[in-house]
Amino acid sequence: MIVAYAESLYDIANMDKVVFRYADRRLGLENKTLIKAFIATVFKKEKQPLGSITYVFCSDEFLLRINRDFLQHDYYTDIITFGLSEKGEPVAAEIYISIDRVKDNARSLGESFKNEICRVIFHGALHLCGYKDKKKSEIALMRAKEDQYLRLYQKASANV
Question: Fewest C-beta atoms under 10 Å: which of 1, 15, 71, 102?
Answer without folding.
Answer: 1
